[in-house]
Amino acid sequence: MKLTYPSYYPAFRCSASGCEDNCCIGWEIDIDKRAYADYMAQGGAFGQRLRGSIAQGEAPHFLLQEERCPFLNEQNLCEIILNLGESALCEICTQHPRFHEWFGNVKESGVGLCCEEAAKLILQNREPAAFIQTETEEPADPDFEDEPLLNALLAARDMLFALLQDRRFSIWDRLVAALVFAEQLQAHLEEEAAPERIRAWVEARQAIPEGFMDKAQGQTRPAAEGTERRILGELLAFYQTLEPIDSGWPDQLGQLRAGLSALLTERKDFLQAHRACATEYEHLAVYFVYRYMLKAVYDGDVLGKIKLMAASVLLIAWLDIAHWHAAHAFCKADQVRLAKRYSKEIEYCEENLQRFADASWEEGFLSLESLTVLLESMAREA
Fold first, then answer.
1. Cα–Cα distance between 75 and 64 in angstroms, integer?
2. Confidence (pTM)
3. Which runs of consecutive H residues, i.e. helices, occur in the chain?
């Protein structure tokens, strides 16, 4: 099987008790079948404690105590590891925040933005993100039947990476170009074009990627007064309706929305004072494309996933601006914290991801035109 992962992936290390937002706090921790059988078989007082701390049923999970895993001690260390060793951890605890996706003979791995140590790795490099490809002995899925479409999507994703990492252009223009490309790719998918034809279309455009930049910049036109604020307000209002993991998240979005008039006035000062953020926004864009785009092999929705990428970068940028406005300062640690929080609230709730996917086709504030207004307004101020 072919394995792909970001170059920073092997460097990930959990900071354990040093983590400022411990993943053993505030998350429902599901227990896989292997770990469940092991916990049920443990003897002695610790075995009794294990069994008494598990919610039984079709999806067994640990019963949180004041939002904490019952085995997270006062030093924020795991008592399962201390008593039984790391091999006794359930799968989610062993893997988090790592993620893995399988597509026939292709496996892709990475680390999720919701973890502060992972977010540091994703955002820290000033060079464009790179990916490692190797072979693994893991067997391919013999029932996977979409290899031609997968190959077309892989070629399209490479094209998107090239667009998003082309630093001759502003990050905001690059995001518009990615949306333009995704819209055209989506049209081919909806026409049920043969995968080989789609791949040929992509490869023909890899030789002239500037064409999408020209189209993106050709869409640039000043929005009517108040249009950006209206669209952004509607987008924030939608995000407020999503299922929160942290009860304070909707309030944070509400404060951002209420302060838009002042933030729009001060945005230019932030973007020009913190030009290094453009590289971090690029890394975020590449992260979202890497993590989600190939899933279109199953549902055919490329454009919705690229809209998720663009909206996510926009929302994180506005969280940055709001923090800078309130604190009169902004640093790398702030960027990590805000990106991580967004990821935790949006990426780690399947209901939220599905609601975004539906809204990307149904709501005007997520149309290509509306997102272009928001992105080009950022480009003019950067």
1. 17
2. 0.93
3. 33-41, 44-52, 79-84, 91-95, 116-124, 147-164, 171-190, 195-206, 210-218, 227-241, 249-258, 260-273, 277-292, 296-299, 302-327, 332-346, 350-362, 368-381
Euclidean distance between the first and final Cα of the chain, in Å? 43
* DSSP at 222: P
Residue type, 63: L
75: buried, middle or exposed (CB in 10 Å: 19+, 13-18, 0-12)?
exposed
Rounded to the nearest 10 degrees, the angle between the axes of helix 227-241 and helix 260-273 is: 100
> Which value, to the nearest 10 degrees, does the dihedral of the CA atoms of residues 260, 263, 268, 274 take?
-120
The two structure tokens encoding residue 113 = 């933005």
Which pair of structure tokens corresponds to residue 176? 């518009």
Determine phi and psi for 161, rounding to 5 degrees.
Answer: -60, -45
Domain boundary assignment for the chain: 24-95, 159-381
Percentage with pLDDT > 70 across the chain: 95
Least-confidence region, from 32-46, 122-136, 217-231, 241-255: 217-231
Cα 116 to Cα 228: distance, rounded to the nearest angstrom = 31
Report yes or no: 345 and 244 within 8 Å, Cβ to Cβ.
yes
Structure token pair of residue 170 = 């502003």
Contact 88, 315 (CB under 8 A): no
- For 251-317, the DSSP string reads HHHHHHHHTHHHHHHHHHHHHHHTTTHHHHHHHHHHHHHHHHGGGHHHH--HHHHHHHHHHHHHHHH
Distances (CA, A) of 196 to 2, 189, 199, 290: 21, 12, 5, 22
